[in-house]
Amino acid sequence: MQNNNLAVSMKLGMRRLASGVCVLSTRLDNNQRFAMTVSSVTSVSDSPASLLVCINQQVSQQAHLATKGSQFAINVLSSSQQDVSNICAGREPTRDRFEVGSWDEDDTGLPVLGDAQAVFICQTDQVMSYGTHKIVIGVIHRVIINGADVDPLLYADGSYGAFSRQ
């Protein structure tokens, strides 16, 4: 049993850790498009090129994403894409998550944000359950870089922010 004070302290501490905001997008087995905001994305290795994303096990589509061989895209949002993050986080449940943003399809039919900072096209390789989440490791098959400026959308302490060079 976890110490409640430790859990509260952990959450307060994590609010101080800024993270880049990404949207995971995929096509489900029934060919429906799906997108969700994720903030727990990190590189794993450059050989093989891979990343991991943490997905809450309460997400109804987590079983699809946790299936070896499933394809998904990690779309790195720019500072001007808060609206995409909000809708894909489910903050407006009556709206279609694909009505906001410049959605395209890659050559396999995977939905991707055409104006994202970067898009990582991945295939699920390994999955591990830990606590409330699935840790999905995806092998990167292609990377799309958009624009010359590095301008990611950041999230910390319940608010959005932007990267600035000094």
Q: What are the SSEs and their pairings?
A:
Layout: H1 4-14, E1 19-20, E2 22-27, E3 33-38, E4 41-46, E5 49-56, H2 62-65, E6 71-76, H3 82-88, E7 103-105, E8 111-113, E9 118-130, E10 133-145, E11 153-156, E12 159-162
Antiparallel strand pairs: 1-11, 2-3, 2-6, 4-5, 5-10, 6-9, 7-8, 9-10, 11-12
Tell me what you see in this structure.
This protein has 166 residues and is mostly beta strands. It is 13% helix and 45% strand. The chain has a seven-stranded antiparallel β-sheet, with helices on one face. A three-stranded antiparallel β-sheet has the order 1-11-12, with no helix packed on it. Strand 11 and strand 12 form a beta hairpin. It is globular and about 50 Å long.
